[in-house]
């Protein structure tokens, strides 16, 4: 496979990574910190929130130009979910269970299915 | 169940409703109208776009503080998609199919399951 064919897919993976980082920034963001003397600690997440949001949109737009809209959205959502779950478990020490994973899979199938079945 | 336990989930549903209203505002928005003598007709959607976007982010941040990142993202995406589908069918007279309904049901089962299985 040529590199040029791979580019939209790499953009798609990059977009999903950005969306993961964007979600994480939102979680780490403390709006109240922005008005206190400790405000510098809130600037990192705020910049991440804005920056990852913009890069995410750009990469997604690049991917959409070549890959169909449905596929782009489905893969982007599914990848983001998977990445976020990894962050949750590895970094934020959240627990996981097979039950939870099964229900997440149901939601993922529903999201992707709904997008694919759309007329 | 105490109200305090329900609050993050209510925020999550509210965030999804805002995201739906935000998407709808974007659909109704005519950027070109903003530079014509008919610009007042474009102000409503523009205000909705900005307002719902902000409230959406705040409610999402509130939900994330209690619910795990993965669950928040999955439920938010899925609910938004379901709400938009409802708006499409009821308001914008779009068609619907049993296939779509089946996928919506999968999403619903997944969300309820996650809520029940949540630690």
TrEMBL record, chains A, B:
Transmembrane segments: 42-61, 73-92, 98-118
Molecular function terms, GO-annotated: transmembrane transporter activity
Subcellular location: Cell membrane
Membrane topology: Multi-pass membrane protein
Protein origin, superkingdom: Bacteria
One term under GO cellular component: plasma membrane
Record-stated family: Belongs to the drug/metabolite transporter (DMT) superfamily. Small multidrug resistance (SMR) (TC 2.A.7.1) family.
Protein name: Quaternary ammonium compound-resistance protein SugE
């Amino acid at each position: 496979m040529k590199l040029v064919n791979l580019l939209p897919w790499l953009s798609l993976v990059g977009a999903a990574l950005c969306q993961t980082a964007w979600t994480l920034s939102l979680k780490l963001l403390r709006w109240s910190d922005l008005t206190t003397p400790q405000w510098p600690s809130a600037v990192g997440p705020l910049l991440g929130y804005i920056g990852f949001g913009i890069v995410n949109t750009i990469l997604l737009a690049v991917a959409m130009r070549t890959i169909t809209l449905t596929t782009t959205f489905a893969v982007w959502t599914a990848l983001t979910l998977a990445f976020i779950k990894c962050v949750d478990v590895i970094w934020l020490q959240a627990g996981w269970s097979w039950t939870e994973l099964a229900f997440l899979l149901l939601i993922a199938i529903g999201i992707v299915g709904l997008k694919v079945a759309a007329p």
